[in-house]
Amino acid sequence: MLLKVRLCNRCLSLLFFPILIIALTLTLALGSPATASEQSTRANAEVVGTVKTTSGTPVIKRNGGDIQAAKGSRLYNGDILTTDDKSSLGLIFRDDSMLSLGPRSEVTVDDFLFEPAEGNMNFLVKIGKGSAELFSGQIAKISPDNMRIETPVSTIGIRGTHILIKVD
């Protein structure tokens, strides 16, 4: 005997929702595909952050080459992030720190390390020019002495949660 089952629209949506959640979870877990430069870097280094927003044509300078920054681009120690007159960039680091760069900016991710279980933490970015806004993350809360920003004329230790910097 063959049994025919007819599902109502509500039943179909109840079946579709878990499939959608699983698909989204896998997409987020796997992340965006890595570029060739990211693949070669990944073998030797750990991802320290991710590009969350872009406008214009921001660039990541890595290993002597330029990479067009895009949402989902991975960041590594040593990366130099640049924006032109009409560009901006939003980043999030593994400790949940958020850094935004305005037009005509250059920032180097000099030393980022976040291994709280081992007590190893460091956040050092160098702002060569332009403007930046930082919302500090877990490193500033757990180990504030290890959260620093360097400019051409000074080093700033971060004790608060939100700072704005402009370097001419």
Tell me what the structure shows.
By secondary structure, the chain is an alpha+beta fold. It has one domain. Helix content is 20%, strand content 41%. The protein is built from three helices and twelve strands; from the N terminus they run ααβββββββββαβββ. The protein has helices at residues 9-30, 36-42, 138-142; strands spanning 49-55, 59-62, 65-68, 74-75, 80-82, 88-93, 98-101, 106-115, 120-135, 147-150, 155-157, 162-167. Strands 1, 2, 3, 4, 5, 6, 7, 8, 9, 10, 11 and 12 form a twelve-stranded mixed β-sheet that branches. β8 (106-115) and β9 (120-135) form a beta hairpin. The chain is globular and about 40 Å long. The N and C termini lie far apart (81 Å). Residues 1-20, 23-33 and 36-43 have low confidence and may be disordered. Residues 80-165 form the FecR protein domain. InterPro entries: FecR. It comes from Pseudodesulfovibrio sediminis.
